[in-house]
Amino acid sequence: MFVYADNAATTRVLPKVLEAMLPYFTEQYGNPSSTYPLGQEASRALIGSRETIAGLLGCRPGEITFTSGGSEADNQILRTAAAWGRKHGRTHLISSTIEHHAILHTLEALQAEGFTVTLLPVNREGQVEPAALEQALTPETALVSIMAANNETGAIQPIARLAALAHARGALFHTDAVQVLGHIPLTLKDTDIDFLSGSAHKFHGPKGVGILFARRGIELESLIFGGEQERGKRAGTENVPGIVGMAAALEEAIRNLEANASRMAAARDALEQQLLTLPGTRVHSGQVPRLPGHLNMAFDGVPAEALLPVLGMAGICVSAGSACASGSPEPSHVLLALGCTPEEARCSLRFSLGDDITLEQVHFIVETVTREVARLRKLHQQA
User: Where is the Aminotransferase class V domain positioned along the sequence (predicted)?
Assistant: First the structure.
């Protein structure tokens, strides 16, 4: 049996999404900037996709910029907020210790350019406490950037409360919603969110295309210079097939959101309950609202680097944390922020189930993990 349980890393492209994309590779392949009919067909596809996404997110089409993915959107948003801050005498940036490296590394670069950065701690369950943000905010704060839900633990953050606190002190607010879009309800209408970033391949769209939302009235800083695409703020010929696929994928995900979330949460809970019967197991962020398919567990005495290959050979695809940090020898910065020891962090696995998960697959995961954890612990004792 094969089980793909690493949907937080990427998801398969749905047949319906691929079908929507294909004509823009082979038939309607014009450059959207061209004025002849073939190019204008592509331009209309971009306009339609932008309108679809804006409608699904509850914002204006002009507030959506297409990017290559979440990392580019995060970079451009932080650079934009930093430039806005300099103009307004605000050079303080706030984020958290559990953010994606696209945020953390950009903040490091901005810090080297003279900005002050505060990284808020999280509680044992992996949530940012509003009181911690309230204490950190100053008249110099330009931006607060807190992810909507964590990519490793699935812990959902109190975004509405955090955004309101930022606005009360005159700061802008950004949320990295890469893990959230298409999986839990989210609207930008009547919120205090000024910026949002998303990535199509996390909700059954193609890789290499993403969403940047910037509230009307905020002028984006360009990262890529050249042509006048994306209102002059993101040069380069638009990825028309990818953008069309992203709109189709988000539409499908939101249409089926409630049913998919219910199915994934039931499967996740069954997996969690059965794996917790093993001695020396713990769930990270298990006492707070989580994304429906996420389960991050520690298996005492069994390093993930030993367990992952045998699970992979058995046909089970899971991870030890963020795919973007999989080449790092260091333990997960997210789990360390939760208070885990380095050893506990190294002995943790992330299961991120998809909307096509079956109970038969859950039972297969449980049987295989139970067997291999026992075997590896025995080998460790004999060593």
Answer: 3-362
